[in-house]
Queue: 2 jobs
Job 1
Amino acid sequence: MTISLGQSAAWQGLGPVDAAPLQSAPADGTGAVFSPALQVGDLRLALDENRIHTLYQPIVRLADRRPVGLEVLARLHHPRLGTLAPGRFVQSMETAGLAGDLTEAVLVAALADWPPERLRELDLTLAFNFPPEVLISDAALTRLETVRTAAGVSANRIVIELTEEDPLADPAALSRAAGRLRALGYGIAADDVSREVAHNPALFQVGFTVLKLDKALVQNAADDPAIAELIRRLSHDARAAGMSVTAEGVENEEQWAAMHALAVDLGQGYLISPPVSAAAIRGWHRAW
């Protein structure tokens, strides 16, 4: 499959691009930033030269430990700054109007790593992070279908995860996008569902197929009865609506046990596996 990255007009129109430097996002948990700041030219060159690489974090079923999916996580290999995690470059990509191009680059890389026969053999889905402006774009959906079809991967092997601090800012637009994706066979997940989002009635009206609990909820549930009750209610309501719930950030056995007791369906986190290469997944799968 040959697709030009960073040049696809179908993914454009999401924001202006100029030559000004962009400050990269804060490092996770440290408040530190890279210096010098990333330039728009650096970002575009990373796309044009295929410097976007993918890692994969397994998702397993808590009831029987069965692997069911992989979240696709992007890394940018920068010639001066080294390998950058998403927190270091994704916000800059979005500010530069390159969110669609980045999304396409990740799709192409992951579907090259995971041909349809490998996904069927291991019976896994691939979950891709989409920012809202890409998710609700008709042109982006058309491009997604083109890339997926060219790779020969079934839509039901792909879950689209909405990445946004406030994923319900425009529920009407999200409902339309979710309806189109579901009609084609895709799954659609609300990523990082926080306590605030969990209390929003629109969470069950958009048409998500998966709710992914923010790791702050997961990691505090065992010690906070209010959080535990919130997760229990979410799990019950999600099951009644035909949705599944995934616990993100599962890092120890206590958190696994708490999520299982609260009827959460799936788990993801360092207890199960850190993000690893596609080549390493097969070995992890056998060992797990």
Note: The longest helix spans residues 225-240.
Job 2
Amino acid sequence: MTRQNRRNFLWSTAALSTVALTTSAREFESQLPSAFSSLKPLGDRVRPITPDEFHSRLVHAQQLMTDLDPKFDGIFVGPGTSLYYFTGVRWGPSERLLALVLPRNGPPLLVSPAFEEGRVRELLRYPIEVRVWQEDQSPTAFIAGFLAERGVHRVGIEEALPFTFFDHFRAAAPGIECVSADPVTIGCRARKSAHELELLRLACESTCNVYRLVFENLQEGMTAEDINRMVMGGYAKMGLHGYALVLLGPAAALPHGTREPQVLKEGDVVLIDDGCQVEGYFSDVTRTAVFGKPTEKIQRAYDAVRQAQDTALDRARAGKFSGTVDDAARGVITSAGFGPDYKFFTHRLGHGIGLDGHEHPYLVRGSKTVLEAGMTFSNEPGIYVPGEFGIRLEDLMAIRPDGPAELLTPGFEVSFEKPFG
């Protein structure tokens, strides 16, 4: 699924419960076991992205446009995480366009609905020129005119820009070549700075702290909704916004959930997936444990998944193709008798992660993306046996300049029966 649609889907399933959609996390917090009192807000451990960092991202994008062959003359970015990445402005999509136009040479421009100008200026984290359009004007024609003034001939269109705006822009600027902005936007966002890695680590640590208490307080007869409330309440205790997908027993064989009711009983697999955000940066962690004692088959599957994680961490090295990491992990699972191909390990090994829960690049068979230091990925092999059980273990990792990748989570799962030891 696409990065945002996946989360929308998870929220719509019974695994998250309709109660979770209508009741605040603060209400869940009030129902928590006493052990959750140890969870505290992160406070001054969170260092926001600075204005200088936002500015440096714009400069980096302009340098990439210059280095490309053929060069880009500019990029056109609509609402979404790339807009935030470059400007600090969080803005949802609507029929009224707010857009960043970044030429290869010269200062950037924000194009805003006129009546939103004050709010836009309030949100800006770095000084950028703002030009406004009125309700009876075309923002795309306005942008086309600005680019014509700058002598722009080749423009990269950011992937999240709605087609209607692209189509109108293309009609308003027939002399401009429109291409994908991916070489610039992915080129900037795929490699995380030290500060971004710090925020990702904090998000992962927070998720693991919540999960630890949840697994320690499981009781027979709990529903998936009960467990989800504990997760959401734990995040609320920390002042964080988070998500949870909870799957029990045979439901865990469906990687993204089911509408069927689930009640915890002895011998069930308990799978908890997803995470939280710190300064907009996502964690994505899955822990799977057995409530009681596993069967031989389930234990064998668990051991294979853990070994696949170790293998993937070792193979995820700078200079290697991203697809080879998936190959290595999938080989471990196939060798354990849970193959071939996608038969039981039904999805790719991992996705990029940062300001989006799923973002470029991806650890998927056949991918020729060359791994570079600072790239961040989920490492999430799984085995899913329909009607029986599912096992997924997910940690985040970052590519190092040398050697195997490093974990951004505090550590891999300790054991099947006690995931946090």
Note: The chain has two domains: 3-31+192-407, 51-189.
